[in-house]
């Protein structure tokens, strides 16, 4: 209870102690980016994945969620301001360390990191993605990307000529293809919301590779992929069909359709220097694909529907 009270106090102090930025600063620097930059100076045992997940929260809330993923063997906490003594009562060293780190401003000498900090992979990629979205707002569909919003609204207003399929086969309007400064299709990964509302499929895409951008697909070379794997240049296409339940005729048609799609995705990935892996739920699905195209890299995820 004392630790929770300390957390609440720090959240209040964060709101009171931080001066309101001028209008120009609000437009160029978000809380998320500020948290990522602050966390980049610390060592994390998970590459910063927890930080990226919680970066939109106030800094004390982020510290509460991710404190245990710090590399505590490389950090020393010193309550130089004398404000965290109460945190040690009933909470031990964790209370003092948390209180020092979660303060609205960190006093000089309060947090000492031993050795050189290598920015966590996930934090570095999230900061790069943030800069990309704000360099090309229309492509990433940010708040300033009014053309994207208006284009999607126009699509929604058009009458539907035929019913749309449900599940993971449904594809929403795709944002404009990312391009580089020369006007060519870009190989830079651009996170976009998962296609459709197939929850089991999206959960599999986030957790199995695992996905660098949970909750997001990624656009590379004009193609939407289900996931970009953490720590490596590998793009994924995830299939969670109940393939084993289909009759023989349906299975053949499904494989024919998937081969065309996967060939296109693999070509786009390889052209940009990424590897390409297909995740399927069952071994029967894997064998059926390999029978038609043995050069595919296919992994059985075991994801259920």
From TrEMBL:
Pfam families: DUF6310. The keyword Signal applies. Residues 149-163 have a biased composition (Basic and acidic residues). The keyword Signal applies. Residues 1-20 form the signal peptide. It comes from the Bacteria. Keywords: Signal. Residues 140-180 are annotated as: Disordered. Residues 180-303 form the DUF6310 domain. InterPro entries: DUF6310 (IPR046277). This is DUF6310 domain-containing protein. It comes from Corallococcus terminator.
């Amino acid at each position: 209870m004392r630790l929770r009270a300390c957390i609440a106090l720090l959240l209040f102090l964060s709101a009171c102690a931080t001066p309101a930025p001028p209008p120009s600063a609000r437009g160029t620097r978000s809380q998320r980016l500020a948290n990522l930059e602050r966390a980049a100076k610390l060592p994390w045992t998970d590459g910063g994945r927890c930080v990226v997940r919680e970066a939109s929260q106030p800094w004390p809330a982020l510290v509460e969620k991710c404190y245990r993923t710090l590399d505590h063997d490389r950090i020393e906490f010193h309550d130089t301001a004398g404000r965290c003594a109460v945190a040690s009562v009933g909470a031990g060293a964790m209370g003092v360390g948390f209180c020092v780190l979660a303060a609205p401003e960190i006093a000089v000498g309060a947090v000492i990191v031993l050795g050189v900090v290598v920015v966590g992979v996930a934090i570095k990629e999230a900061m790069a993605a943030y800069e990309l979205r704000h360099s090309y707002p229309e492509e990433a569909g940010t708040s300033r990307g009014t053309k994207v919003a208006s284009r999607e609204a126009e699509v929604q207003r058009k009458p539907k000529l035929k019913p749309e399929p449900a599940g993971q086969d449904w594809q929403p309007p795709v944002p404009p293809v990312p391009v580089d400064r020369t006007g060519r299709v870009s190989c830079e990964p651009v996170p976009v919301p998962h296609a459709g509302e197939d929850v089991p499929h999206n959960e599999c895409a986030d957790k199995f590779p695992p996905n660098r951008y949970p909750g997001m697909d990624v656009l590379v070379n004009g193609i939407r992929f289900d996931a970009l794997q953490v720590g490596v240049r590998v793009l994924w296409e995830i299939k969670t069909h109940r393939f084993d339940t289909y009759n023989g005729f349906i299975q053949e048609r499904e494989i024919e359709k998937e081969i065309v799609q996967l060939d296109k995705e693999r070509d786009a990935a390889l052209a940009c220097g990424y590897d390409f892996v297909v995740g399927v739920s069952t071994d029967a699905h894997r064998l059926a694909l390999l029978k038609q195209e043995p050069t595919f890299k296919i992994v059985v995820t075991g994801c259920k529907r």
